[in-house]
């Protein structure tokens, strides 16, 4: 999917919501455990209830890898379901990969060619040659951790290294990498006060922003400095939507929670017109 197609979808749906598909078998309605593939059945219902309100879906691969081969199969079925039934949505494999070049190339192949995700998250710690194999895939997007939502972000990312915070160096340096137009960045919603500085460095890039809802981040705070002319934001909520109810009505309630966020996004978009 091109960035322009994503932007068009945002204006059409009046939403820049990304629904996180972080499926924990201990949290889903018990009746689903009797089905052949509880994770996929859960995802299908969540997707069907929210697809008109969301422009992106983000399964975090940890939640699938934790269940071994069966979990990976559920991930495969989920992306196939999205690509077949809702081809307009942007799909993100939240896998946080990155390794020496030839290994990164295999990760990229796995997520872009085999699973056919539109994008994958990567960690920048191993540098340029660990990320460029992902960027080489045209029509795909590589979403690099910049300033994460967790407390540990202050351990390294905000540290001053030779006169500049590390996350700023990551943003600046990555702009010079080959095919850097395929880069997007992760910035936690809990770090909204850093967004003005971040937008000074990468005014045009899309940001994936997790941390709204369960982690306490706030949509309005993120939009204040995070939004750009193309909107440039995908705001993720996982637990706040998918586990809003653990009853038989879980999909309906997930739809209601997604609607609450979409309506706030619609107001922000209308004010921007
Ligand atoms: O900085 C980051 C990077 C990734 N995440 C991931 O996003 C979701 C957030 O889930 P919630 O339930 O909405 O808190 C999850 O998959 C994280 O691993 C993040 O939170 N922060």
From TrEMBL:
Residues annotated as the enzyme's active site:
96 (proton donor)
Write down what this protein is called: Orotidine 5'-phosphate decarboxylase
Q: Which gene does this sequence derive from?
A: pyrF
Keywords, in A-Z order: Decarboxylase, Lyase, Pyrimidine biosynthesis
Q: Which residues form the Orotidine 5'-phosphate decarboxylase domain?
A: 16-253
Keyword set includes Aminoacyl-tRNA synthetase: no
User: Which SUPFAM superfamilies does this entry report, sorted A to Z?
Assistant: Ribulose-phoshate binding barrel
Q: Which organism is it from?
A: Aquimarina rubra
Q: Check the UniProt entry and state the signal peptide residues, or none.
A: none
């Amino acid at each position: 999917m091109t960035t322009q197609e994503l932007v068009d979808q945002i204006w059409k749906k009046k939403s820049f919501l990304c629904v996180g598909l972080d499926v924990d078998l201990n949290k889903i309605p018990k009746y689903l455990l009797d089905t052949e593939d509880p994770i996929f059945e859960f995802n299908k219902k969540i997707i069907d209830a929210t697809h008109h309100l969301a422009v992106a879906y983000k399964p975090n691969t940890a939640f699938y890898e934790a269940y071994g081969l069966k979990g990976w199969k559920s991930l495969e079925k989920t992306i196939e379901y999205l690509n077949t039934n809702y081809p307009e949505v942007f799909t993100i494999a939240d896998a946080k990969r990155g390794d020496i070049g030839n290994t990164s190339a295999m990760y990229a192949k796995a997520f872009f060619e085999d699973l056919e995700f539109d994008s994958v998250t990567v960690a920048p710690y191993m540098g340029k040659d660990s990320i460029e194999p992902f960027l080489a895939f045209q029509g795909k997007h590589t979403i690099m951790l910049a300033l994460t939502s967790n407390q540990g972000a202050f351990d390294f990312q905000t540290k001053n290294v030779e006169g500049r915070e590390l996350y700023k160096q990551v943003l600046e340096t990555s702009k010079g990498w080959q095919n850097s137009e395929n880069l997007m960045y992760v910035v936690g919603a809990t770090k909204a006060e850093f967004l003005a500085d971040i937008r000074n460095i990468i005014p045009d890039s899309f940001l994936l922003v997790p941390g709204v809802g369960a982690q306490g981040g706030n949509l309005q705070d993120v939009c204040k400095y995070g939004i750009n002319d193309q909107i440039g934001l995908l705001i993720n909520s996982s637990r706040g939507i998918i586990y809003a109810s653990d009853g038989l009505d879980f999909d309906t309630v997930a739809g209601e929670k997604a609607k609450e966020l979409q309506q706030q996004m619609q107001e922000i978009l209308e004010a921007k017109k």
